Amino acid sequence: NKVIILNKRPHGKPALSDFEITNEEIPLAKDGAILLKTVYVSVDPYLRGRMNDAKPYVPPFELDKPIQSGIIAEVIESKQENFKKGDFVSGNLEWKEYQTSEGKGLHKVNQNEAKLSSYLGILGMTGLTAYLGLTEIGLPKKGETLIVSGAGGAVGTVAGQVGKLLGCKVVGITGSDEKVDLLTSKFNFDHAVNYKTTPNLKEAVKSACPKGVDIYFDNVGGEISDAVLANINKYARLPVCGAISLYNKTEVPIGPRLQPIILTKSVTIRGFIIGDLAEKFPAATKQLTAWLKADKLTFSETIVEGFDNIPQAFIALFEGKNKGKMIVKI
Ligand code: NDP
Fold first, then answer.
1. Cβ < 6 Å from ligand 1: which residues?
2. Coil, strand, or helix at residue 147?
3. pTM exceeds 0.90
4. pLDDT digits (tens, 9 = 90+) for 168-194
5. Domains and CATH numbers, the chain
6. Which residues contact 256 (CB under 8 A, 6 or more apart)?
7. Which residues are 91's β-sheet partners?
8. Which atom of ligand 1 is nearest to the CA of 151?
């Protein structure tokens, strides 16, 4: 039974040597417990924060202990009444091939309703983040211009599509020409910009958004966000969803002072942590499921195969190797 533990706290960008694969016996399910076999593992940028010895919004991972993330697992033995053998569950579980659980925090997922892996993406944490971040904080109105950074990823692809469904003009910022094409062909974005090859991002945003930016769904922070803010409209809303461009920085970078723009444009900036909006999950999931069934929403996944490759898949998030949701299939 393989287990992945945090070997060292990453300094800057995570490295494979920060992780170690160890072995333990497959545990026995005691009375009241279930034995789970891991099927799909979600790797997510926020896990980087939990690898530091600081308290972000969730406690840090402990050294030499298994890492946890969103996982889909199959119940292979059950000694409790809520789950039976053959059920699939979703929950925050450990990076282990097999583990036991008393079922706390686990939800059954139905593979006849949707692809199992989609419960880690569009019907899971990242889909909810995109939908609720945009609708609750971005407050989109028909005809407005929405710009999304990190647009080619799990959250970004959904945020942009939801913006289109709600009548916005949608522009994406992403890190490759392949993702630029994907955004405008598959995901219905009106326009997309490659921040890695555009010589002047501020000007590129200006020409993609001739009427200015009314909503900026920010997944990345840093210089990309500075370029967007230079084009912000009066009364714009700015849901701060993530800041991946800053997660691996070992020193706090200094940027332009943006207060005069925020002030004179009366911009509302609001960060959010998706877990704090949990009471809105059932209605949001219902809407996302309905759009998916009606083919109004689509999704991409980058699937990496093999338990041993979980750390590599996680690191690849910081290299932009994923299109849509990054998932490891065991
Ligand atoms: P993604 O699927 O978007 O994967 C990460 C992507 O970020 C990469 O593919 C890469 O794409 C981009 N990226 C990596 N490094 C940089 C960089 N230095 N500058 C700009 N872009 C970079 O991940 P998620 O959709 O899961 O998450 C997106 C963001 O949302 C993250 O910041 C995450 O922390 C945040 N988040 C926040 C939640 C909340 O509760 N607030 C919940 C879930 C996610 P590219 O090719 O474009 O560079």
1. 44-46, 125-126, 129, 150, 152-156, 174-176, 179, 219-220, 224, 241-245, 272-274, 317-318, 320, 322, 326
2. strand
3. yes
4. 999 999 999 999 999 999 999 999 999
5. 2-121+300-329 (3.90.180.10), 125-275 (3.40.50.720)
6. 226
7. 71
8. 47
